[in-house]
UniProtKB/TrEMBL annotation:
Organism whose genome encodes this protein: Auraticoccus cholistanensis
Pfam families in alphabetical order: DUF5605
Domain DUF5605: 382-446
Top-level taxonomic group: Bacteria
Protein name: DUF5605 domain-containing protein
Length: 448
């Protein structure tokens, strides 16, 4: 390090000795020629670059393994400017780590399952303090675990500057305090703020360098990417650059319709708008990865996929879940466009989605869609648990085949009224269930 350069200062966001697993370690490289910092632990290596934050030049990193992490600070030519180490302490109580992919399901880094029920509130964080507080209060009382939000302000014509990124960062931190994930939409679909346009890589570098260390962050390149007019090569390159910059290895997706290549090796899960809601089972099978399904929006706004009743919204969410996907919520009323600006929820779907979350929380960890059942859709752990949704069908009876040598209890779940009625007795083998002849019913079968 030259005499003119300031020594690198390390901090661990308030921890004097070390940083908790999945926490944020900061290195202050202000006044140095630092271009990159390489972190090492056992066979794990990660590289992070500096970003401008509040007049300082910082490198942020989130250690994901406990123990001693060494680091080396290098300039653009690869010369070592400084070296050091920091201890990664055990995770804080209740911190399960970032969300990862396990087969076709989501789990946290410590193995805790993650039943994703997300919602969209694209620009909630750009509202005034009163509205922001209202949004956070709504989220606390809601069933949602993830908020989709845009890095770019509504109607933006230039890349987000440092002040704008500070707003996004503060919102991500507020969501983290509530135990919520933040899916960050990185680019616009139209205009000059799309991938491949001048400045796009610098934009990505600043966003990822600043926020990748936040363990509750996941990435979405853009909404409706297949309508952007951009060739596949542009999305390929954007995914490559994002993966290269993202030392946190967060979830990566692109929101699009049926023509998009969700099988791309750098896409961790598919994210599909409402016109694909009936194909959730094909998405999971075809790409062998989790599928997040936008089923439309409850409300009265005349847009494609909008204007749904709460009953239809809840029903579509159940359909998606029992087809093996993750269903996400949206709400847009003319007098209260939650999915744009947040605030409060005016619809009736959210309490029923909280009930859906309770049902999923009581289910076994390893669930998948039954590949054989054709008349209705069943989420199951074979021989242990079956959850079958009948939607608009008002069945009086329904046949079901269970293992012969095991006894099961059967419950009729009214997904709209949020009630559970247990049928008398136990069941095994081929059975015919008596059902209440009304829509929005699910059947839950559990091994005794």
């Amino acid at each position: 390090m030259s005499r003119e350069q300031t020594p690198v200062a390390a901090s661990a966001t308030g921890e004097a000795v070390g940083v908790a697993r999945w926490g944020v370690l900061e290195l202050d490289v202000t006044g140095t020629a630092a271009a990159a910092v390489t972190f090492h632990h056992a066979d794990r290596e990660a590289v992070a670059g500096p970003v401008d934050v509040g007049g300082r030049r910082l490198v942020r990193f989130s250690p994901d393994l406990p123990g001693r992490w060494s680091y080396s600070v290098t300039d653009a030519g690869g010369a070592v400017l400084d070296e050091g180490s920091r201890e990664c302490l055990p995770a804080r109580p209740g911190d399960h780590g970032p969300v990862r992919v396990h087969g076709t399901r989501f789990v946290h880094a410590d193995g805790t399952r993650h039943h994703s029920i997300g919602t969209t509130a694209l620009w909630w964080h750009h509202q005034d303090e009163v509205e922001r507080a209202a949004t956070l209060a709504t989220l606390v009382a809601s069933p949602f675990d993830t908020v989709r939000m845009s890095v770019l302000p509504e109607g933006a014509t230039s890349w987000t500057d440092e002040e704008g990124l500070a707003v996004v960062e503060a919102a991500v931190a507020e969501l983290a305090q509530l135990g919520l994930q933040a899916e960050l939409v990185l680019f616009a679909t139209e205009g000059a703020l799309r991938p491949g346009q001048p400045g796009w890589q610098q934009h990505l570098q600043q966003v990822v360098g600043r926020l990748a260390a936040a363990s509750n962050v996941t990435w979405c390149l853009a909404l409706d990417a297949d309508r952007s007019g951009l060739p596949a090569q542009v999305w390929d390159e954007t995914l490559r650059v994002l993966a290269e910059l993202d030392h946190g290895r967060r979830l990566r997706t692109v929101h699009a319709g049926p023509g998009f290549d969700f099988g791309h090796r750098l896409i961790t899960h598919s994210s599909v708008r409402d016109d694909m809601r009936w194909e959730a089972q094909d998405l999971v099978r075809a790409f062998a990865k989790p599928a997040v399904l936008d089923v439309g929006s409850e409300g009265d706004v005349p847009v494609p996929g909008g204007g749904l009743t709460a009953q239809e919204m809840v029903s579509l969410m159940w359909w998606g879940v029992c087809r093996g996907a993750y269903s996400w919520h949206a709400e847009e009323f003319v007098d209260g466009p939650w999915s744009r600006y947040g605030g409060k929820l005016d619809g009736d779907a959210a309490p029923r989605l909280a009930f859906l979350r309770q049902v999923l929380a009581a289910a076994p960890a390893e669930l998948a869609r039954n590949p054989v059942e054709r008349h209705t859709f069943t989420l199951e752990a074979p021989g242990e648990y079956y959850l079958q949704y009948h939607g608009l069908h008002r069945y009086s009876t329904h046949r079901f085949s269970l293992p012969e040598d095991v006894r099961f209890g059967v419950e009729v779940v009214d997904t709209w009224e949020m009630t559970v009625d247990r049928l008398a007795g136990t069941f095994s083998g081929d059975i015919v269930l008596d059902l209440p002849r009304k829509p929005y019913v699910a059947v839950r079968i559990t091994r005794c």
